[in-house]
Design a protein that fits this description.
Blueprint (H helix, E strand, L loop, with lengths): L6 E8 L7 E8 L5 E6 L10 E4 L3 E5 L1 E6 L15 H15 L2 H17 L2 E8 L3 H9 L2 E8 L7 H15 L7 E7 L7 H14 L4 E4 L3 H9 L5 H6 L11 H7 L8 E4 L5 H10 L2 E4 L1 H6 L7 H6 L3 E4 L12 H16 L7 H7 L2 H6 L17 E5 L11 H7 L6 E6 L2 E5 L2 E2 L7 H16 L1
Parallel strand pairs: 1-4, 1-5, 6-7, 7-8, 8-9, 10-11, 11-12, 12-13
Antiparallel strand pairs: 1-2, 2-3, 5-14, 14-15, 15-16, 16-17
Helix pairs in contact: 1-16, 2-3, 2-16, 4-5, 13-15
Length: 453
């Protein structure tokens, strides 16, 4: 990448995360795309030749980190409403197989990245079967992790599934770079056998790959693991797959199978007890908290305060728009705060300062990227997000943190920067063109409706 212009960004508020908010602050970004200085604007003299960008009434903060999404599923927004979880899964899987192509998944991933950039998300963890996001992350300039999914509830097919996973990962290696990592994801207990879980963990450890697993998400998953019963069991048995009890909980099962040795990102973790939380913490595993999707599907609310008390690494994720409908991490944070305050009947849970950490440095830690991103401090990558504080629904601003997390929305983002490169500014995208994507998504949605009706 050619050298970037030396740029001094000035803003009414700078939110470094690692320090108190700075009124009338500034961030200097070097030609290498890294942060060179952060402080009050009067304390940072513009270097000779620097471009000065006065952003005005905005909160300038680290780029947002979305630790769990499914970019390939953008065409499912609003298509899977009000279903129980088993029917939700079956309709999703069946319609994908019947109606969608690889080209559809790539168009959906591009659409998702457009949404992400416009809402201030600079790092996105994509869990998907197509792997489409790897190429699109490179194209878009965003940062992220692509967890290639693997499926196989029949233990007799574990070797075949692992061979397919190896081939898929090998194909995605070409997209690895400083911004994009490739990982693996044994999908969930109802789609992955014990043998495949263990084999995938061995593969991840041998290859140094990050891992993600949907875990402890729903009551019917819990029933399958604990008793071999529940809504998923009849369908598995109809395919000749035995459903014996597999563990006291999903986390205990994953620990027994050696999966937690890989320190995976455990997605959802709604149904964790004290022993589960201890296992997650002791193994250094992380959690992707997706409160909106979990609430909309009727699963419940993950025990976030208890996990934080146990020093579990927890980041915030939106999940797919098929379960959430929105890719708005600012909204996700606000709703997380409201839900957890209601659950524990306390008004101080997940304060605005906590929410700022949750969508930045905590997400970076959950993905193992806190060495590079998540705070505004010299030496880190210049991944930035500027949230306008000027709209009527944000004014007046008594506290910039409260304004960002309890008044602003994703649509108030006016600038998104990754590695010092401006990807979005005042409604204009620099790397992605959404103009040709809308008809592609509409066509995919039409085909989905045809097979789902």
């Amino acid at each position: 990448m050619p050298d970037l212009p030396l740029t001094l960004y000035r803003a009414d508020w700078v939110l470094p995360v690692c320090a108190a908010p700075i009124r009338d602050g500034a961030v200097l970004v070097g030609t290498d795309g890294r942060i060179a200085a952060v402080g009050p604007r009067l304390a940072i003299e513009p270097p000779e030749g620097a471009v000065i960008e006065d952003l005005g009434p905005v909160a300038l903060m680290p780029g947002l980190v979305n630790v769990h999404a499914h970019p390939e599923l953008a065409m499912y927004r609003g298509a899977l409403e009000d279903l129980n979880f088993r029917d939700w899964i079956l309709r999703l899987v069946g319609s994908k197989r019947a109606a969608l192509t690889e080209a559809d998944f790539h168009a959906a991933a591009r659409w998702t990245m457009v949404e992400a950039v416009r809402s201030g998300i600079t790092t996105l963890a994509a869990t998907e079967s197509s792997g489409a996001s790897a190429a699109v992350l490179c194209e878009s300039g965003l940062r992220g992790v692509v967890y290639q999914e693997v499926f196989g509830p029949d233990p007799a097919q574990a070797d075949e599934s692992i061979a397919g996973l190896r081939a898929a990962v090998d194909g995605l290696r070409a997209y690895e770079c400083d911004r994009v990592m490739i990982g693996v994801s044994p999908h969930a207990p109802y789609t992955v056998s014990d043998a495949l879980f263990a084999a995938t963990a061995d593969f991840a450890l041998a290859e140094g790959l990050p891992m993600a697993v949907h875990a402890s998400e729903s009551r019917i998953e819990q029933m399958l693991v604990q008793a071999g019963e529940g809504d998923f069991a009849p369908g598995l048995r109809a395919r000749g797959i035995a459903t014996p009890p597999r563990g006291r909980t999903t986390v205990e099962m994953l620990d027994r199978l050696g999966v937690l040795r890989a320190r995976p990102l455990l997605i959802h973790c709604v149904l964790l007890d004290a022993d589960d939380i201890r296992r997650v913490a002791d193994t250094g595993s992380a959690v992707a908290h997706c409160p909106v999707a979990n609430a909309r599907l009727g699963h419940g609310l993950a025990p976030y305060p208890e996990m934080i008390e146990a020093n579990v690494r927890v980041g915030l994720g939106t999940d797919s728009v098929g379960s959430n409908n929105r890719l708005d991490l600012l909204e996700e944070a606000r709703i997380a705060s409201i839900l957890h305050r209601a659950r524990v009947a306390r008004p101080d849970v997940l304060s605005p300062a906590d929410l700022l950490k949750l969508v930045t440095i905590d997400g970076a830690r959950a993905l193992g990227l806190d060495w590079a991103i998540g705070t505004l401090e010299p030496g880190k990558a210049a991944d930035l997000c500027a949230v306008s504080l000027a709209a009527p629904h944000v004014q007046p601003v008594h506290d910039p943190l409260a304004a960002v997390f309890h008044a602003a929305r994703g649509c108030d983002v006016v600038m998104t920067v990754v590695d010092g490169r401006v990807l979005y500014r005042d409604g204009q995208l620099s790397t992605l063109d959404p103009a040709g994507l809308e008809p592609l998504l509409a066509d995919a949605a039409r085909r989905l409706r045809e097979v789902m009706t």
